Known about the structure:
mainly alpha
Amino acid sequence: MAPEPVAAERAYKLLKSDLLAGRFKPGSPIIERQIALEYGMSISPLRDAAHRLVGERMVEMVKAGGYRVPYFTATALRDLYVWHGQLVRLVLKDFSQSDPVMAMPDLAIGPGQPVAAAATAVFRSLADFAQNKEHGRALASANDRLTPTRIFEDEALIQIDEELASVANAIFGSSPDRLSLLRAYHRRRIRRAGKIAMIANQGGSL
Length: 206
């Protein structure tokens, strides 16, 4: 029997939220019975949510059965940063001087809002504001897939809070230098993709 739509949607939102927050270490299995019990639901909607997240490439199927969180490889993470950067520039190039100014998301960085969450909020807002909705959906997808690795960027890069503030001001303030700032932002991460992937796969500091 297929899960009820409301239960399936709730399971999807809960599981995706946990994935975005980095709750599961790369390579960890999605233990359906345990997580379903925690969420207060049956296995069926949880399984439906996991299958949906396979389509978003945030979860992968295991040959022996079940699901797990993917490992990050240097090449895959590098490609994802490149794609994210290209999409950001595509979205920004669609805007003209006559377009309304985008609202900047809350960038209060601290215990309740780490840099990783703030970065995700910046690019999610940009995706939501995209004039070309296909570009926006693609950017939202790339942004979600990068979110779990952003938790570990501060262990491979320095001053990412100041960098993010500059990038956000450039995007939402329509700075003429915003494309060059964004290229630099992504270039730093592309160069350090191997180290970021290694730290993420180990779940934190080396």
